[in-house]
Design brief:
253 residues, Rossmann fold, 42% helix, globular
Protein backbone atom coordinates (compact mmCIF):
# COMPACT_ATOMS: atom_id res chain seq x y z
CA UNK A 1 0.00 0.00 0.00
CA UNK A 2 1.26 3.45 -0.86
CA UNK A 3 1.68 6.26 1.64
CA UNK A 4 1.79 8.80 -1.19
CA UNK A 5 -1.26 10.97 -1.68
CA UNK A 6 -2.56 10.94 -5.26
CA UNK A 7 -4.81 13.45 -7.03
CA UNK A 8 -6.77 12.97 -10.25
CA UNK A 9 -7.14 16.22 -12.20
CA UNK A 10 -9.39 16.21 -15.25
CA UNK A 11 -8.42 18.51 -18.09
CA UNK A 12 -4.93 18.77 -16.66
CA UNK A 13 -2.99 19.23 -19.88
CA UNK A 14 -3.50 22.99 -20.31
CA UNK A 15 -4.77 26.21 -18.77
CA UNK A 16 -6.06 26.06 -15.23
CA UNK A 17 -5.77 22.28 -15.00
CA UNK A 18 -2.09 22.40 -15.87
CA UNK A 19 -1.40 24.90 -13.12
CA UNK A 20 -3.50 22.92 -10.65
CA UNK A 21 -1.53 19.75 -11.37
CA UNK A 22 1.82 21.49 -10.90
CA UNK A 23 0.76 23.23 -7.69
CA UNK A 24 -0.68 20.01 -6.26
CA UNK A 25 2.61 18.26 -7.07
CA UNK A 26 4.47 20.98 -5.15
CA UNK A 27 2.51 19.82 -2.08
CA UNK A 28 4.25 16.43 -2.35
CA UNK A 29 1.20 14.81 -3.95
CA UNK A 30 1.42 12.62 -7.06
CA UNK A 31 -0.90 13.50 -9.92
CA UNK A 32 -2.85 11.71 -12.63
CA UNK A 33 -4.09 14.14 -15.27
CA UNK A 34 -6.57 13.53 -18.04
CA UNK A 35 -6.42 15.03 -21.49
CA UNK A 36 -9.00 15.04 -24.26
CA UNK A 37 -6.82 14.91 -27.38
CA UNK A 38 -3.49 16.70 -26.88
CA UNK A 39 -1.14 14.02 -25.54
CA UNK A 40 1.90 16.17 -26.28
CA UNK A 41 0.66 18.89 -23.95
CA UNK A 42 -0.10 16.28 -21.28
CA UNK A 43 3.44 14.91 -21.58
CA UNK A 44 4.80 18.43 -21.04
CA UNK A 45 2.84 18.68 -17.80
CA UNK A 46 4.24 15.33 -16.66
CA UNK A 47 7.74 16.70 -17.29
CA UNK A 48 6.96 19.86 -15.28
CA UNK A 49 5.60 17.82 -12.39
CA UNK A 50 8.74 15.69 -12.37
CA UNK A 51 10.74 18.83 -11.57
CA UNK A 52 8.86 19.10 -8.27
CA UNK A 53 9.91 15.62 -7.16
CA UNK A 54 6.38 14.23 -7.42
CA UNK A 55 5.23 11.77 -10.08
CA UNK A 56 2.60 12.33 -12.75
CA UNK A 57 0.75 10.18 -15.25
CA UNK A 58 -1.66 11.01 -18.07
CA UNK A 59 -4.75 9.17 -19.31
CA UNK A 60 -7.07 10.08 -22.18
CA UNK A 61 -10.65 10.88 -21.21
CA UNK A 62 -13.65 12.54 -22.83
CA UNK A 63 -15.57 13.84 -19.82
CA UNK A 64 -18.70 14.26 -21.94
CA UNK A 65 -18.96 10.55 -22.63
CA UNK A 66 -20.43 8.84 -19.56
CA UNK A 67 -20.31 5.46 -21.30
CA UNK A 68 -16.49 5.66 -21.33
CA UNK A 69 -16.12 6.16 -17.57
CA UNK A 70 -16.09 2.48 -16.60
CA UNK A 71 -13.24 1.80 -19.02
CA UNK A 72 -11.39 4.88 -17.80
CA UNK A 73 -11.51 3.79 -14.17
CA UNK A 74 -10.41 0.29 -15.16
CA UNK A 75 -7.31 1.84 -16.77
CA UNK A 76 -6.77 4.14 -13.81
CA UNK A 77 -7.07 1.24 -11.38
CA UNK A 78 -4.56 -0.78 -13.38
CA UNK A 79 -2.14 2.17 -13.42
CA UNK A 80 -2.43 2.75 -9.68
CA UNK A 81 -2.07 -0.97 -8.96
CA UNK A 82 1.11 -1.22 -11.00
CA UNK A 83 2.65 1.97 -9.59
CA UNK A 84 1.41 1.92 -5.98
CA UNK A 85 0.07 -1.59 -5.31
CA UNK A 86 -3.33 -0.01 -4.66
CA UNK A 87 -6.27 1.01 -6.83
CA UNK A 88 -7.11 4.02 -4.67
CA UNK A 89 -6.46 7.74 -4.88
CA UNK A 90 -7.17 10.66 -2.55
CA UNK A 91 -8.39 13.74 -4.41
CA UNK A 92 -10.62 14.25 -7.43
CA UNK A 93 -10.44 17.63 -9.16
CA UNK A 94 -13.26 18.05 -11.69
CA UNK A 95 -11.73 20.74 -13.87
CA UNK A 96 -12.19 19.68 -17.52
CA UNK A 97 -14.43 21.92 -19.56
CA UNK A 98 -15.01 24.30 -22.41
CA UNK A 99 -17.04 27.47 -22.69
CA UNK A 100 -19.34 29.22 -25.10
CA UNK A 101 -20.28 32.87 -25.29
CA UNK A 102 -23.70 33.09 -26.87
CA UNK A 103 -26.78 35.14 -26.04
CA UNK A 104 -29.65 33.16 -24.52
CA UNK A 105 -31.73 33.88 -27.64
CA UNK A 106 -29.11 32.24 -29.89
CA UNK A 107 -28.21 29.24 -27.70
CA UNK A 108 -29.24 26.01 -29.41
CA UNK A 109 -30.29 22.73 -27.85
CA UNK A 110 -26.99 21.28 -29.06
CA UNK A 111 -25.09 24.08 -27.29
CA UNK A 112 -27.07 23.44 -24.12
CA UNK A 113 -26.47 19.69 -24.25
CA UNK A 114 -22.73 20.23 -24.78
CA UNK A 115 -22.51 22.42 -21.67
CA UNK A 116 -24.69 20.00 -19.70
CA UNK A 117 -22.65 16.94 -20.65
CA UNK A 118 -19.27 18.54 -19.95
CA UNK A 119 -20.00 20.64 -16.89
CA UNK A 120 -22.75 18.82 -15.03
CA UNK A 121 -23.72 15.33 -16.22
CA UNK A 122 -20.12 14.28 -16.85
CA UNK A 123 -18.95 15.63 -13.50
CA UNK A 124 -21.88 14.02 -11.67
CA UNK A 125 -21.27 10.52 -12.99
CA UNK A 126 -17.47 10.67 -13.12
CA UNK A 127 -17.61 11.52 -9.41
CA UNK A 128 -20.12 8.75 -8.71
CA UNK A 129 -17.92 6.18 -10.41
CA UNK A 130 -14.85 7.50 -8.54
CA UNK A 131 -16.24 6.59 -5.12
CA UNK A 132 -14.99 2.97 -4.97
CA UNK A 133 -11.49 4.26 -5.78
CA UNK A 134 -11.48 7.33 -3.53
CA UNK A 135 -9.87 6.90 -0.13
CA UNK A 136 -11.83 7.78 2.99
CA UNK A 137 -10.54 11.10 4.28
CA UNK A 138 -9.93 12.35 0.73
CA UNK A 139 -11.47 15.26 -1.10
CA UNK A 140 -13.40 16.39 -4.15
CA UNK A 141 -12.82 19.82 -5.67
CA UNK A 142 -15.30 20.95 -8.30
CA UNK A 143 -14.47 23.92 -10.49
CA UNK A 144 -17.27 26.43 -10.91
CA UNK A 145 -17.13 30.03 -12.10
CA UNK A 146 -17.62 33.55 -10.87
CA UNK A 147 -20.43 33.61 -13.43
CA UNK A 148 -22.53 31.52 -11.06
CA UNK A 149 -22.58 34.55 -8.71
CA UNK A 150 -22.55 37.53 -11.08
CA UNK A 151 -23.91 37.77 -14.61
CA UNK A 152 -22.30 38.79 -17.87
CA UNK A 153 -24.39 38.47 -21.03
CA UNK A 154 -23.67 35.45 -23.20
CA UNK A 155 -22.96 32.81 -20.57
CA UNK A 156 -26.42 31.61 -19.56
CA UNK A 157 -25.94 27.92 -20.48
CA UNK A 158 -22.41 27.63 -19.10
CA UNK A 159 -23.17 29.50 -15.89
CA UNK A 160 -26.37 27.55 -15.26
CA UNK A 161 -24.38 24.30 -15.27
CA UNK A 162 -21.89 25.80 -12.83
CA UNK A 163 -24.76 26.80 -10.56
CA UNK A 164 -25.88 23.17 -10.63
CA UNK A 165 -22.36 22.05 -9.74
CA UNK A 166 -22.35 24.31 -6.70
CA UNK A 167 -25.56 22.73 -5.41
CA UNK A 168 -24.27 19.25 -6.23
CA UNK A 169 -21.10 19.91 -4.23
CA UNK A 170 -23.06 20.65 -1.06
CA UNK A 171 -24.89 17.35 -1.44
CA UNK A 172 -21.58 15.55 -1.91
CA UNK A 173 -20.25 17.10 1.28
CA UNK A 174 -23.31 15.97 3.21
CA UNK A 175 -23.60 12.46 1.79
CA UNK A 176 -19.88 11.66 1.80
CA UNK A 177 -19.23 13.21 5.21
CA UNK A 178 -19.51 9.80 6.95
CA UNK A 179 -16.44 8.76 4.93
CA UNK A 180 -14.63 11.98 5.94
CA UNK A 181 -14.52 12.96 2.26
CA UNK A 182 -14.61 16.71 1.87
CA UNK A 183 -16.24 18.42 -1.14
CA UNK A 184 -15.63 22.03 -2.09
CA UNK A 185 -15.99 24.42 -5.00
CA UNK A 186 -13.34 26.73 -6.41
CA UNK A 187 -14.87 29.44 -8.60
CA UNK A 188 -12.39 31.34 -10.77
CA UNK A 189 -13.19 34.72 -12.19
CA UNK A 190 -12.06 35.73 -15.66
CA UNK A 191 -8.71 34.07 -16.41
CA UNK A 192 -6.36 34.72 -19.33
CA UNK A 193 -6.24 31.24 -20.89
CA UNK A 194 -7.46 29.79 -24.20
CA UNK A 195 -10.78 28.89 -22.53
CA UNK A 196 -13.85 30.02 -24.46
CA UNK A 197 -11.80 31.13 -27.43
CA UNK A 198 -9.20 32.99 -25.38
CA UNK A 199 -11.06 36.31 -25.21
CA UNK A 200 -9.96 36.95 -21.61
CA UNK A 201 -6.38 36.72 -22.85
CA UNK A 202 -6.61 38.36 -26.27
CA UNK A 203 -9.52 40.83 -26.33
CA UNK A 204 -8.07 44.07 -24.96
CA UNK A 205 -11.46 45.76 -24.69
CA UNK A 206 -12.81 42.88 -22.60
CA UNK A 207 -9.64 42.77 -20.50
CA UNK A 208 -9.95 46.49 -19.72
CA UNK A 209 -13.61 46.06 -18.77
CA UNK A 210 -12.83 43.16 -16.42
CA UNK A 211 -9.92 45.02 -14.84
CA UNK A 212 -12.13 48.02 -14.14
CA UNK A 213 -14.67 46.07 -12.10
CA UNK A 214 -12.14 43.84 -10.31
CA UNK A 215 -10.88 45.01 -6.92
CA UNK A 216 -7.30 43.87 -7.59
CA UNK A 217 -7.38 45.63 -10.95
CA UNK A 218 -6.47 42.98 -13.51
CA UNK A 219 -7.57 39.84 -15.31
CA UNK A 220 -6.68 36.60 -13.54
CA UNK A 221 -3.89 34.26 -14.61
CA UNK A 222 -3.82 30.46 -14.33
CA UNK A 223 -1.33 30.65 -11.48
CA UNK A 224 -3.90 32.59 -9.43
CA UNK A 225 -6.11 29.49 -9.25
CA UNK A 226 -3.92 26.40 -8.99
CA UNK A 227 -2.57 27.18 -5.53
CA UNK A 228 -6.11 27.47 -4.12
CA UNK A 229 -6.99 24.02 -5.45
CA UNK A 230 -3.71 22.64 -4.11
CA UNK A 231 -4.50 24.00 -0.64
CA UNK A 232 -7.76 22.03 -0.63
CA UNK A 233 -5.75 18.87 -1.27
CA UNK A 234 -3.74 19.30 1.94
CA UNK A 235 -4.31 18.60 5.63
CA UNK A 236 -4.41 22.36 6.18
CA UNK A 237 -7.92 22.24 4.67
CA UNK A 238 -9.08 19.23 6.72
CA UNK A 239 -11.99 21.16 8.34
CA UNK A 240 -13.16 22.85 5.13
CA UNK A 241 -16.09 21.26 3.32
CA UNK A 242 -19.24 22.36 1.45
CA UNK A 243 -17.59 25.72 0.75
CA UNK A 244 -17.47 27.90 -2.34
CA UNK A 245 -14.14 29.67 -2.62
CA UNK A 246 -14.14 32.34 -5.30
CA UNK A 247 -10.73 33.26 -6.71
CA UNK A 248 -11.62 36.25 -8.85
CA UNK A 249 -9.54 39.11 -7.49
CA UNK A 250 -12.73 40.67 -6.16
CA UNK A 251 -14.81 40.85 -9.33
CA UNK A 252 -18.08 42.80 -9.06
CA UNK A 253 -18.07 42.98 -5.28
Amino acid sequence: MTTRKIALVTGGSRGLGRDMAINIAKKDIDVVITYHSNKEAADEVIAEVAKTGSKAFALQLDTRDVSSFHGFYTKLGDLLESEYNSKHFDFLVNNAGTGIYKPFTETTEADFDEMMNIHFKGVYFLTQKALPFLNDGGGIINISSGLARFTLPGSSAYASMKGAIETFTKYLAKELGPRSIRANVVAPGAVATDFGGGTNRDDEKKRALISNFTALGRVGEAEDIGSVVAFLCTHDAHWVTAQRIEASGGTLI
